[in-house]
Amino acid sequence: MIREIRAKTLLARVSGIDTWFGLDFCMNLYRGCQHHCIYCDSRSLCYGNDQFDEDVLVKSNAIDILRGELRRTRKRGIIGTGSMSDPYMPAEERHRLTEGALEAIAEYGFGVHVITKSTLVLRDVALLQKISRRSTAAVSLSITTIDDALAHRVEPGAPPPSERFLALRALADAGIEARVALMPVLPFLEDSPDNVRAIVERAKECGVHAIVASFGVTLRDRQRAHFYARLDESFPRLRARYEAQYGDRYVCSSPDSDALRVQFEALCAKHGIHTSVRPLLAPLTDEPRLFA
């Protein structure tokens, strides 16, 4: 069910230096997500979203709130969206909050980083190009397997990876900084050297600038229960392997994470792909930010 709610605030300042995505601010235009990824951390109790898989909450006044906050923010920076719910889930086709947010970000001279699994991002290429003329505009497509069939089982509501790679090529061709978020890499399902190699090589073909990776998954409370229930449905006996390997640990790194990291770094170096996004170690200024 899709329901409208009223937001009180939208922008949150990112504390410290964000070396994952290079953000100064973050925002979420929706609550809940229609992609139904079996591993999503947003189901966790700490976020208070009891109906994550049933309801999508649309912040109907989000763009008015955002415009007011941008107008009052003295120093410009990079605004990220997509950390808690996908900004290009199917609901965006009707409600167009992400489109409205990009229009406001372009108008006020801020930069943006979008993380998504959806090819709907291509609808807003012109807005991203407008933002990039004054600041940074980057899009990360989340891709953790080269296998469309496997992706359908773990990310049932999202477009297949093959389509996401085509979107990356289109973004790069349009002059938008295209990135891959190689996370979470699910242990015993996606953490093979062949899978990592295939993703990096396909990313190179698509003009990807950077890949940030995490070889494992985080699991806690309600999120863990949901993930294990889905494993029982789609991957019989795999739950027992997780329980034996990780117990009740929050950070569940692949047993091969060190070797995968070495392989990943070497492949990216070979292909000229960055493996981190390093913001300038300086306070926000009115000048555009530079990224490596």
Q: Keywords, please?
A:
globular, seven-stranded mixed β-sheet, 292 residues, three-stranded mixed β-sheet, 16% strand, disordered C terminus, single chain, alpha/beta, TIM Barrel
Overview of the molecule:
By secondary structure, the chain is of the alpha/beta class. It has one domain (2-271): TIM Barrel (Alpha-Beta Barrel), CATH 3.20.20.70. The protein has ten helices and twelve strands. It has helices at 62-72, 91-95, 97-108, 125-132, 148-154, 161-173, 193-205, 221-234, 238-246, 257-271, and strands spanning 2-5, 12-13, 25-27, 30-31, 56-59, 78-81, 111-116, 137-142, 177-182, 210-213, 216-218, 251-253. Helix 1 (62-72) runs parallel beside helix 3 (97-108) and helix 3 runs parallel beside helix 4. The chain is globular, with a radius of gyration of 19 Å.
List the SSEs and their pairings.
Blueprint: E1 2-5, E2 12-13, E3 25-27, E4 30-31, E5 56-59, H1 62-72, E6 78-81, H2 91-95, H3 97-108, E7 111-116, H4 125-132, E8 137-142, H5 148-154, H6 161-173, E9 177-182, H7 193-205, E10 210-213, E11 216-218, H8 221-234, H9 238-246, E12 251-253, H10 257-271
Parallel strand pairs: 1-5, 3-6, 6-7, 7-8, 8-9, 9-10
Antiparallel strand pairs: 2-3, 4-5, 11-12
Helix pairs in contact: 1-3, 3-4, 7-10
